[in-house]
Amino acid sequence: MESRLSLGSGFYRAFFLALLSLNGCGKNLGDCSASPRLFPCTKKTAEDIARQALSDHDYDLAVETLGPEVEANKADASLSDQEKYRLHPLLAAAYAGRAGFSIFSVLENQSKSLDNQGSGGIIEQMSSFVPSPSGLSTSTYGAMIEDMGSAVAILKEIPSGLLAETESDSFGKSSTLQLTLYLSAHSVMIMNKFILSPTTGVFDASRLANMSDADAEAILNSLTSASQVPGADNPAVQKKIEDALSSIDSSPGASRKEKLQDYLAKNGGGTSA
């Protein structure tokens, strides 16, 4: 059965605002080579270049271009908080894209079934949108997990007050939505290291023995944070996260790692929590 991350129409509306925020047309994006020119042509800004790079899936260029801009904005005392953190969602999207997670793919999937609440647990549903370690070297997949972690860290720099969702605040909607998704994706990407064969991509419970206490804490902390994002209004996905955390907590085991291992052994192959 096809797995869909079905998040409800409210989530879709918020995500559509996020898409507009990330894919908006800037005043300097005119084609300077066009003749005759329909609009005044000015030099592209770093933001313009990064937006085009995201559209072209050139995530390295987007990260390299936006990184210095984000740091400069944070250090500029003359800017308001929203101006200081305005580019954070864009940079986070660049890191997530480099990690193999495309928010545009989530939107396309969601548009097919806006009000279907979906079946399956958070692992099954999120796995449709995160890369598999199959066919990748350990270092390559590890770098992708690090990039997703960077996407999360960048969004966490935004003050919680700016994440509070209002009906007219597309910045808050975009940032909150991205943080919930990226935390969930980060957790599932780490999980996949210990439940999927690196050669076949097939579920392999024997790999759970390689999980360390630190790995377990990273997974659980990301899931817990995803369920507690300030101002989040994504009830369907948050319920799936909360259900998974509840199931993990009630699993047999003397430690959090053992409880997680038991849960993944029973649910990591695609069975809903």
Explain how this protein is built:
With 273 residues, the chain is an all-alpha fold. The chain has one domain. The chain is 58% helix and 0% strand. The chain is built from 13 helices and no strands. It has helices at residues 8-22, 46-55, 59-75, 81-84, 88-98, 103-110, 122-126, 138-156, 160-163, 170-193, 213-226, 235-249, 256-267. α2 (46-55) packs antiparallel against α3. It is globular and about 65 Å long. It starts with 7 loop residues before the first helix and ends in a 6-residue tail after the last helix.
Oligomer: single chain
Number of helices: 13
Question: What is the number of beta strands?
Answer: 0
Secondary-structure class: mainly alpha
Principal-axes geometry comes out as globular
Overall domain count: 1
In N-to-C order, the SSE pattern is HHHHHHHHHHHHH
**Helical fraction:** 55-70%
C-alpha termini separation: 16 Å
Largest sheet: none
Question: What share of the residues does DSSP label as strand, in percent?
Answer: under 5%
Weakly predicted, low-confidence segments: 22-30, 111-117
Mean pLDDT: 80
What Rg is obtained from the alpha carbons, in whole angstroms? Answer: 20 Å
Q: What would the keywords be for this entry?
A:
273 residues, mainly alpha, 13 helices
